[in-house]
Amino acid sequence: MEEITLLNPLDMHLHLREGEMLKNIIDFTTSQFSGAVVMPNLSTPITTTQLAMEYKEEIQSSAKDKDFMPLIAIYITDALNEEELKTAKNNGIKILKLYPKGATTNSDNGLAEILTPQTLKIFEIAQDLGFMLSIHGETGGFSMEREYEFGPIFAAIAKDFPKLKIIIEHMSDHRSIALLEDYENIYATLTLHHITMTLDDVLGAGLKPHHFCKPILKTPKDRDMLLALALNAHPKVSFGSDSAPHLEKNKLKDNGAAGIFSAPNMLAMLCELFEKHDKLHNLQAFISDNAKTNYNISKLPKKAVKLHKKHTAIPSQIRLIQNNIIPLNGGRLLQWSQA
Ligand code: DOR
Ligand code: ZN
């Protein structure tokens, strides 16, 4: 195929940051996607409807495409209560994000323990109000086992709250796939990096801090089994880039930041991947249709993004005033580009 048109691409897991960073990166996404689930782990986390509304304003005023639809998730802290959840619901917020305390970037306000009476009460209210629960599912154990060890927590929540839709964000371990099959209310997002790379891309040939992310990239078996889910557009799986920009200096220092900035040329990279495996016909479902169904998204601006076979290069760096951001595959020549 020489050309493909994707209708309303959606990125169901995205970090846009704020201020100068936001202004410099937002249009890499809005030029390709109709909407995105925007993660709330800012330096001041988005824990209330008020903060979510202000953040939505900031995103929309920074974006060129004024039709872009940010779905802001609310960060679950110990302070979240029923009243706040009702306010969020009344203001169109659909997603709650759970970070285990300390699991990743800006997660210090996350939950030290997940299955406490207080949190279970929040899950119950969330279920009654029709929220979706998005989870960064990792324990504090050995890096390669963290997602697997979190499995019983996913299972316990799914079992006790069967009407609560739960999303395993950035699924990275093939052993998590069973949860999709075992629990009707468990869904997942997949990133490009977890379906195309392994731990060897982080440390197999010299240390590559720009490939360091959480959850950490895993084994060839994990990559291949997750890639199959994406290529076959498994109906419970949606694309979520987890594009997470950090300044180069913060990636390179000791205790370097976790996160891969994958937003530039994302659709062209996905076209290349799906075409290579003869699955281009499934890209529409993976990039939009599954998400529309599973997240009940009805109002979309109707964006048609045309891509064709034409070489294009991924930018090797994005210059901000003080420092750069290095994109995934920066400098690489792609066979596809946006028309
Ligand atoms: O690698 C990651 N970076 N994983 C996350 O969960 C958060 C993200 C970020 O915000 O930088
Ligand atoms: Zn993330």
Structure description:
- By secondary structure, this protein is an alpha/beta fold.
- It has a single domain (3-338), classed as Metal-dependent hydrolases (TIM Barrel, Alpha-Beta Barrel), CATH 3.20.20.
- It has helices at 19-30, 49-62, 82-90, 117-129, 146-160, 177-182, 192-196, 200-203, 220-231, 248-252, 266-276, 283-294, and strands at 3-7, 10-14, 35-38, 69-72, 74-75, 95-98, 132-135, 165-168, 186-190, 237-239, 304-313, 318-319, 324-325, 333-338.
- The longest helix is centred in the middle third of the chain and has 15 residues, at 146-160.
- The model has no long low-confidence stretch (mean pLDDT 97).
- The structure holds (4S)-2,6-dioxohexahydropyrimidine-4-carboxylic acid and zinc ion (ZN).
- Zinc ion binds next to loops.
What binds here, in terms of ligands, is: (4S)-2,6-dioxohexahydropyrimidine-4-carboxylic acid, zinc ion
Query: Mean pLDDT, as a whole number?
Result: 97
Rg result: 19 Å
Main β-sheet, spatial strand arrangement: 5-6-7-8-9-10
The CATH architecture: Alpha-Beta Barrel
Offer a quick outline of the entry.
The chain is α/β, with parallel strands linked by helices. Helix content is 35%, strand content 18%. α3 (82-90) runs parallel beside α4 (117-129).
